[in-house]
Amino acid sequence: MVFMRHYEVMVILDPSLDERTIAPSLDTFLNVIRTTGGNVEKVEVWGKRRLSFEINKNAEGIYAVLDLISSPDAVKELDRQLGLQETVLRTKVIRREPAKAAKTAARIAAKAAAKAKA
Q1: What single DSSP character describes residue 2?
Q2: Domain range spanning residue 28?
């Protein structure tokens, strides 16, 4: 049985790329997720942003965030394939746990409400 987990992948791309072509080009990489039974929830292209430090002599990069539900092996393969591309400056994969995050937010809200009553 394959466990599906929720992941968020941040990709920083070369700033010389045309921003309109980014989502379609990322879509070809996302076939790794789709062919293994995963699901691509959302692809957000944030656009060109200034980097906090230079990467490969680039002071800016184009940010894209991918929201996925997939098996760990498929996400690992996606990260590997993105890392092989010269136009990809950096990637960061984060495993998200929506239920745990919601519980933490509810607990913080309850503490704040209790403090407000006191």
Answers
A1: P
A2: 5-116
Residue 78 region, left (φ>0) first, then alpha (ψ -120 to 50), else beta? alpha
Smallest Cα–Cα separation from 57: which of 16, 26, 11? 16
Q: How confident is the model at residue 113 (pLDDT cuts 50, 70, 90)?
A: confident
- Tell me how far the alpha carbon of residue 82 is from its chain's centroid: 12
User: How many domains does the structure of the chain reveal?
Assistant: 1
Q: Of the candidates 1, 2, 10, 12, which has an alpha carbon nearest to the alpha carbon of residue 70? A: 2
| Residue 101 to residue 96: CA distance in whole angstroms | 8
CATH number at residue 9: 3.30.70.60
Q: What is the DSSP letter of 68?
A: E
Element (H, E) at 25: helix 22-29
Q: What band does 84 get if pLDDT is binned at 50, 70 and 90?
A: very high
